[in-house]
């Protein structure tokens, strides 16, 4: 039984491979046929010359040239190539076959019209079966937009967004079929000629019916086209992640086409078939013929729609190689023929073939590298990526800028949508730097190690399509991870050093606060009591001069000790901080400048949370130094000291802004500015001096470590 099941599974897999192979062969056979028909139509177009446009003037001439000489020649290879690539890799998806069908209809119809033009107008009677070809081309004309509307309606998975959109598909198929049927039995055939031809199978009395059907078809087609464009936006709004990215360019092109069609209809109603009408419809038709396949191509190439990157890669390489080889051959043959003016083409062809043979291999390698870089980034050039990463790390002055440099380099090298570096800390991993947004696929996680010790992780999301990284990608990422591990270890050491410094500064200020409290509340009162007792003893021993002199000396020494203790207390921590608090202490300091002509105001939240001693002292000293600089150098009339809280970062924000003369162009970094910056950096914060909006100076400091900011 088990053997039978295995045989059944293997049989189904074999059938699937055969079906996929047949689909691929069919798709590329259709592509070759379509391209051949398209080339034939271009040849006929060239041979016909100006036969079709000689009688046209103004906007009609512009429309003829725009359609037949620009848009149609671009639409045929664009839709045919996209269709063949998708159908060969995803034969179960209708999008590829619809693109091939659209390219085939356009190519056959264009070739038929050019054939008819040559048979009836350019060189009358020169080609056989002119009437059947004209009739077939005329009947085929209404069917061309059916696959286009269906492409918009079914992209990207081959199904409509929901059941409610199915009537649009049935309506466009039924409407186009009805118009084609009416054209088939109508009394005349209009196959792009200046004059209409009698329909050999037409019914004479149906002229009015055919005219009514054709007249009603154009507004109905516009409504169906706009409905299919609306389905793109409906699908785009409901999608997310990679699918949303795949649809955005198609939605953009659809919006342009819809707007151009609506404006073109309005212009036609107002001014008829004028130049503005022609240009508007030209924009819409350009979006239909070239914009849509380009948008699908972006979805396939950039966001790996249908996961056909290998097929696209080889198609781009060998398609470009073929174009280059043919161009080189033609240029060499043409140049040598014009130079030597010889009629013997064999030597020239041999020389051109030799040049092409010599250039073939290096040209293919260069094209392969260019296409690989376009699709996969620089995974095939690991040395260049590693060298660039090393240069960026060497040029990075601040340690915290090293990690963003790493993630940006990795993302740019592999075209990864999201790269993240996790730093090991407190028994877990924290995000230290990231670039881009996750693609939704399973990310690749690589350890970042230094001397066999894991210091972090490198997380790289796959390119769109959830396809895992190729071995070449993994090798490059492993090389980058080894170099990034050393940089991350250095960043970790710097971070640990900064944290240790912050803890030392905080502990120092807390210890100073404790010492000040002990000296102020303990030693100071004891010395004062000792002085009082000495004075009391002097009063009682006034009769003994020697004792009085000794006690007087002791009292003087005690008063000197009290003065020293008070000085030490003041140096350890500004007394005003303990007596008044941070904001009232600064307001008291600001009041001291009232006689200098400077108006100082202090703005702060209603209630600041309890601050660590180090944060209080740093904020007080920075504000004090900034106010001193304003008085000495700014010549300002007013100055504002602002306090704020960054609750997410848990930091105290301090700003001192004046309306003085601003910063001098040749200013240096004095002791005061350096002191303010050092006090902030001791806590892991920042302090910057910059011009203010009022043409004065602004000091901005961020002091982390604020406790209980949420209370």
TrEMBL record:
Residues 621-707 form the Histidine kinase domain. It is found in: Cytoplasm. InterPro entries: GAF-like_dom_sf (IPR029016), HATPase_C_sf (IPR036890), HATPase_dom (IPR003594), His_kinase_dom (IPR005467), Sensor_HK_TwoCompSys (IPR050482), Sig_transdc_His_kin-like_C (IPR004358), Sig_transdc_His_kin_sub3_dim/P (IPR011712). Keywords: 4Fe-4S, ATP-binding, Cytoplasm, Iron, Iron-sulfur, Kinase, Membrane, Metal-binding, Nucleotide-binding, Phosphoprotein, Transferase, Transmembrane, Transmembrane helix, Two-component regulatory system. It is an enzyme of class 2 (transferase). GO terms for cellular component: cytoplasm; membrane. Its cofactor is [4Fe-4S] cluster. It comes from the Bacteria. Its EC number is 2.7.13.3. The chain crosses the membrane at residues 26-46, 66-87, 94-113, 133-155, 167-189, 216-237, 249-273, 279-303, 315-340, 346-363. It catalyses: ATP + protein L-histidine = ADP + protein N-phospho-L-histidine. GO terms for molecular function: 4 iron, 4 sulfur cluster binding; ATP binding; metal ion binding; phosphorelay sensor kinase activity; protein dimerization activity. Pfam families: HATPase_c, HisKA_3. Member of the two-component regulatory system NreB/NreC involved in the control of dissimilatory nitrate/nitrite reduction in response to oxygen. NreB functions as a direct oxygen sensor histidine kinase which is autophosphorylated, in the absence of oxygen, probably at the conserved histidine residue, and transfers its phosphate group probably to a conserved aspartate residue of NreC. NreB/NreC activates the expression of the nitrate (narGHJI) and nitrite (nir) reductase operons, as well as the putative nitrate transporter gene narT. This is Oxygen sensor histidine kinase NreB. It comes from uncultured Rubrobacteraceae bacterium.
């Amino acid at each position: 039984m088990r053997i039978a099941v295995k045989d059944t599974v293997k049989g189904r897999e074999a059938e699937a491979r055969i079906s996929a192979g047949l689909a691929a062969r069919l798709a590329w056979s259709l592509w070759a046929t379509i391209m051949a028909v398209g080339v034939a139509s271009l040849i006929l177009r060239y041979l016909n010359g100006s036969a079709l446009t000689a009688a046209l003037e103004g906007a009609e001439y512009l429309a003829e040239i725009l359609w037949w000489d620009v848009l149609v020649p671009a639409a045929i290879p664009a839709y045919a190539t996209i269709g063949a690539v998708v159908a060969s890799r995803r034969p179960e998806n209708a999008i590829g076959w619809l693109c091939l069908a659209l390219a085939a209809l356009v190519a056959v119809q264009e070739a038929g019209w050019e054939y008819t033009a040559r048979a009836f107008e350019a060189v009358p009677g020169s080609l056989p079966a002119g009437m059947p070809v004209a009739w077939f081309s005329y009947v085929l004309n209404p069917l061309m937009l059916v696959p286009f509307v269906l492409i918009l309606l079914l992209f990207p998975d081959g199904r409509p967004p929901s059941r409610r959109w199915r009537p649009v598909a049935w309506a466009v198929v039924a409407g186009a079929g009805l118009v084609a049927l009416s054209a088939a039995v109508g009394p005349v055939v209009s196959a792009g000629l200046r004059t209409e031809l009698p329909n050999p199978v037409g019914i004479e009395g149906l002229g009015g019916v055919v005219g009514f059907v054709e007249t009603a078809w154009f507004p109905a087609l516009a409504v169906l086209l706009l409905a299919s464009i609306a389905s793109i936006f409906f699908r785009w709004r409901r999608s997310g992640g990679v699918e949303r990215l795949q649809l955005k360019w198609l939605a953009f092109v659809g919006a342009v086409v819809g707007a151009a069609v609506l404006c073109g209809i309005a212009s036609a109603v107002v001014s008829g078939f004028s130049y503005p009408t022609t240009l508007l419809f030209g924009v819409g038709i350009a979006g239909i013929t070239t914009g849509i396949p380009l948008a699908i191509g972006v979805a396939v190439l950039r966001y790996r729609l249908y996961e056909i990157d290998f097929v696209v890669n080889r198609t781009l390489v060998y398609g470009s190689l073929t174009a280059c080889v043919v161009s080189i051959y033609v240029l060499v043959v043409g140049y040598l023929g014009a130079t030597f003016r010889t009629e013997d083409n064999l030597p020239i062809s041999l020389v051109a073939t030799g040049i092409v043979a010599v250039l073939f291999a290096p040209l293919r390698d260069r094209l392969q590298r260019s296409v690989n870089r376009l699709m996969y980034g620089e995974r095939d050039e690991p040395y260049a990526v590693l060298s660039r990463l090393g240069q960026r790390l060497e040029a990075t002055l601040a340690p915290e800028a090293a990690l963003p440099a790493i993630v940006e380099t990795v993302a740019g090298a592999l075209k990864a949508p999201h790269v993240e570096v996790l730093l090991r800390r407190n028994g877990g991993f924290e995000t230290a730097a990231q670039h881009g947004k996750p693609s939704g696929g399973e990310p690749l996680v690589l350890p970042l190690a230094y001397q066999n010790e894991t210091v972090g992780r490198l997380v790289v999301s796959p390119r769109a399509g959830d396809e895992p990284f190729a071995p070449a990608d993994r090798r490059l990422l492993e090389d980058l991870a080894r170099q990034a591990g050393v940089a991350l270890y250095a960043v970790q050491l710097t971070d640990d050093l900064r944290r240790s410094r912050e803890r030392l500064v905080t502990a120092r200020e807390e210890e100073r606060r404790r010492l000040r409290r002990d000296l102020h509340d303990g030693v100071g009162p004891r010395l004062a009591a000792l002085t009082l007792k000495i004075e009391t003893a002097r009063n009682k021993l006034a009769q003994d001069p020697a004792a009085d002199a000794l006690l007087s000396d002791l009292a003087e020494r005690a008063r000197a000790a009290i003065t020293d203790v008070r000085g030490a207390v003041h140096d350890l921590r500004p007394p005003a901080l303990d007596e008044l608090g941070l904001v009232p202490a600064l307001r008291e300091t600001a009041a001291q400048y009232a006689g200098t002509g400077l108006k100082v105001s202090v703005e702060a939240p209603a209630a600041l949370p309890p601050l660590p001693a180090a944060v209080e002292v740093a904020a007080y000293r920075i504000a004090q130094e900034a106010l001193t600089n304003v008085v000495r150098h700014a010549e300002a009339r007013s100055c504002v000291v602002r306090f704020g809280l960054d609750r997410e970062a848990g930091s105290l924000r301090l700003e001192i802004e004046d309306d003085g003369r601003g910063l001098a162009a040749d200013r240096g970094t004095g002791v005061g500015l350096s002191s303010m910056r050092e006090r902030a950096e001791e806590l892991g914060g920042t302090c910057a001096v910059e011009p203010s909006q009022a043409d004065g100076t602004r000091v901005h400091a961020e002091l982390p470590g604020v406790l209980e900011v949420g209370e």
